[in-house]
Specification:
heterodimer; A: Methylamine Dehydrogenase, Chain H; five-stranded mixed β-sheet; four-stranded antiparallel β-sheet; globular; B: Jelly Rolls; six-stranded antiparallel β-sheet
């Protein structure tokens, strides 16, 4: 069941994906907000787990959904050098196809993360999957390899011994790969048909695990908003040219959220930047140290902004003023970003406990909980009345029985 | 031609042309368009083309190997989905021929295991000295299980001998740790330093500055003249080479030991590795500081990353050793961070072949005797 809103439709259909698809990190708009309604709230494992299947490898990337297909990446092997892309039937959890490639770059990472940390992206026809090893594969949705890149082979010092995690984004028809690290740090705009560089821009020499956001500007074009320790760089995704720079620093872990022409940046707590409709400038709207997010990225829904800190406290603020409105303690810690659907926030903590917060309650209210019993660090996907969430070993579909 | 004569000459030529397009792929996506088209043609082939596709990986770069794997995966998946069969005998023969690429042989084994687990199981003991570390691992695991079984029933002599055999073949750290732990529990000595081939005897010079992390790019005295008799202008006065040997089982060379827990400093270490022949080898380095490494005066590689983690074989650097003495020089920079996890100013280095088998210096001191 889905409620199709105009805002959702224009962005999703513009690139070939359909409304209801979950096409990249934090969904089609990259902000963790879904237009789905009718998701289960009072979660119950017996009632709401449609299926659960074992995965052949580890990972913390988010699943994607296109139509009736779920896509997820993983890595396996003693050296975690077997890079996997798996396509699952959303209806019954059966594996439709699985592809495996050899890592060409470094497969060293911190024990808590994974080589399959970055989330893939799709335009509804092609699937683009990148791994911590900076290996990038483009497949059609039937699993046929179209092209590949090994960006640590191309740029040998482009690596991070803790692991890379920035997810791919599509902006202005260009595939954008952030390969930002302490040494050979860059972001590249790639031709999505061939994988060759359209441009490659040097980036701050500092480890960075954030994912870019994409602004739709007045002309119908898109602007790429790259976050790093140096702030936000707004870049033309077709050329790599800089449009503006917010230079007051930003986090290198939680990513920004864009809603209603305002970018909510994890910077000095949380800083709201009003973006000009022509993509050429910004103006700082407010800043709040009380809305500082932890690892999870902030969310904006209706006229509220939400952040989860590292102590597991969910803070709600007013999007106009940045004023803190209420706080609710959840069971943390949270490694993955929550999502919002139908005025409920879904957060999965690192112990696998799902918590559903009713955002219509005056100070938020925990309306449902369910224990999956395994470490969850991904941000869930929401599509066609279901949530999809994965651990290092499994993936679950969570839905009402009527959606099975 | 890659062995597709039964297809007919025209089809075989077409096949070879497509494989050549994949093998022509280079860096930065060069050749991707032609490769994508060639891959679509190859993926339409039957299961009988699998051994030839695997053979196409011989001597290919990693881009090409992955493209070819893309075709192999599609063909194998489609064949099995339609109830067809994979050419097990041909895949087995390919696997058993060690002149083929190690990765493609491991993939052949995976395909065999996918459809005939029993046949795959029978092949495992033969992988003990295999050039493929993945295949070798299977055989070591088997031996380790057998040794554990013998130890459990109290047959200590047989268990020790099997553990020794397993250790000799093992190249993966987790297996090496399991085996050496078991041997030590049975009262036997194990020399892991020698097993890995860590270099333990060094000459050190330092400290030089690394203020504002500028030391990484600065060219200090040892990079201009590494003669052991030389002296240099260091951070706190004249600096000379001094001997340093590590007793660490994993060959950790710790600059903090001779110089104290310093910050914003640069140190150098050098050693001579004597090779009996001209040969290819790998320098395998673990280091969480910024570093550069030179072999016989030529810069091999350098990396300016600090405190993001360290492990054995973190960096695998292919080199060519010359017969006789080979001078290895390492530069390690410590930065300004003060957290307790940033104290380390150290590295570990070994010389080995592409499978991770230690190559020992021809004049190695005899204190690294093999397990007794």
């Amino acid at each position: 069941m889905k409620k199709i809103l105009l805002t959702f439709t224009f962005a999703a259909l513009a690139n070939g994906a359909a409304a209801g698809d979950w096409t990249g990190f934090r969904g089609p708009l990259g902000n963790g907000v879904s237009d789905e309604v009718g998701l289960p709230v009072a979660l119950n494992a017996k009632k709401h787990i449609s299926w659960r299947i074992d995965l052949p490898g580890r990972g913390l990337s988010s699943p994607l959904v296109v139509g009736n297909r779920v896509f997820v990446t993983a890595s396996a092997g003693t050296r975690q050098d077997q890079l996997q892309i798996i396509c699952i039937n959303a209806a019954d959890g059966s594996v439709i196809w699985q592809r495996q490639f050899w890592a060409m770059g470094s497969t060293m990472c911190h024990n808590k993360t994974s080589i399959a940390a970055p989330t893939p992206v799709t335009d509804g026809r092609l699937l683009f999957a990148i791994f911590s090893s900076n290996d990038l594969f483009c497949l059609d949705l039937d699993g046929n390899l179209q092209w590949l890149r090994g960006m640590t082979l191309d740029y040998p010092n482009a690596r991070n011994s803790l692991g890379m995690a920035s997810s791919l984004v599509l902006a202005g028809g260009v595939l954008v790969a952030q390969v930002e690290n302490d040494s050979e740090s860059f972001t590249a705009g790639l031709d999505k048909q061939t994988g060759v560089n359209l441009w490659r821009a040097d980036r701050p020499k500092s480890a960075n695990w954030t994912t870019a956001t994409v602004q739709k500007i007045g002309s119908g074009a898109e602007m790429l908003l790259l976050q790093s320790g140096k702030g936000i760089h707004a870049v033309n995704p077709k050329s790599g040219e800089l449009a503006w720079h917010y230079a007051d620093g930003a986090s290198t872990i939680p990513s920004s959220a864009l809603a209603g022409g305002v970018l909510y940046v994890p910077s000095h707590g949380l800083t709201a930047l009003e973006l000009a409709d022509d993509g050429r400038s910004f103006k700082q709207k407010w800043r709040s140290s009380r809305l500082r997010p932890g690892t999870a990225s902030p969310l904006v829904h209706r006229d509220r902004v939400y952040s989860l800190n590292n102590a597991g406290v969910l803070t709600c603020g007013d999007t106009d003023s940045g004023k803190r409105l209420w706080q609710l303690r959840l069971d943390g810690p949270f490694g993955g970003s929550p999502v919002v659907a139908d005025n409920h926030l879904y957060a999965f903590n690192e112990e696998g406990k799902a918590q559903v917060v009713d955002l219509s309650a005056p100070e938020g209210r925990i309306a449902g909980e369910m224990d999956l019993g395994e470490m969850i660090q991904c941000s869930p996907a929401v599509s066609n009345g279901a949530l999809y969430v994965r651990s290092n070993g499994r993936i679950w579909k969570i839905a009402r029985k009527t959606q099975l | 031609m890659l062995g597709l004569a039964p297809l007919g000459q025209a089809a075989a030529d077409e096949f070879d042309k497509s494989v050549a397009a994949l093998r022509a792929v280079g860096g930065e996506g060069q050749g991707n368009t032609a490769a994508g088209q060639a891959l679509q043609r190859l993926a339409k082939g039957g299961a009988d083309t699998l051994p030839a596709l695997l053979a196409g990986m011989d001597g290919a770069n990693l881009f090409a190997a992955n493209y070819l794997r893309g075709a192999v995966e599609v063909i194998a998946g489609n064949t099995l989905a339609k109830g067809g069969e994979l050419p097990l005998v041909e895949l087995g023969e390919f696997l058993l021929n060690r002149s083929h690429d190690a990765k493609s042989r491991a993939l052949a084994f995976e395909l065999i295991a996918r459809v005939d687990a029993e046949a795959a199981e029978q092949l495992i003991p033969g992988f003990l000295g295999d050039p493929s570390v993945d295949l070798r691992r299977e055989a070591v695991a088997r031996l380790l299980g057998q040794a554990d079984g013998l130890a459990k029933v109290g047959n200590k002599p047989a268990a020790v001998l099997l553990y020794r055999q397993a250790l000799d073949a093992a190249r993966d750290l987790d297996q090496i740790k399991s085996i050496s732990g078991a041997l030590r529990e049975l009262g036997r000595k194990v020399n892991l330093t020698r097993h890995f081939g860590f270099l333990v005897d060094w000459q050190m010079a330092g400290p030089f500055h690394n203020k504002d992390r500028a030391g990484f790019e600065s060219v200090f005295g040892p990079e201009k003249n590494a003669e052991l008799s030389a002296s240099y202008d260091g951070m706190d006065g004249k600096v000379k080479w001094q001997g340093y040997s590590t007793d660490d089982e994993y060959g950790m060379v710790d600059f903090n030991k001779p110089y104290g827990d310093l910050k914003e400093v640069t140190g150098y270490a050098q050693t001579e590795f004597v090779s009996g022949i001209n040969r290819p080898a790998e320098l395998r380095l673990g280091c969480k500081n910024a570093w550069k490494i030179w072999l016989n005066g030529e810069l091999v590689f350098g990396r300016d990353e600090y405190h993001r983690g360290m492990r054995i074989d973190q960096y695998k650097l292919p080199v060519q050793l010359k017969k006789g003495g080979n001078a290895i020089l390492i530069k390690a920079c410590q930065n300004e961070q003060v957290e307790d996890w940033t104290v380390q100013w150290q590295f570990q280095l070994r010389v080995c072949d592409a499978t991770g088998t230690a190559i020992h210096s021809a004049t190695k001191k005899n204190r690294e005797v093999a397990a007794q």
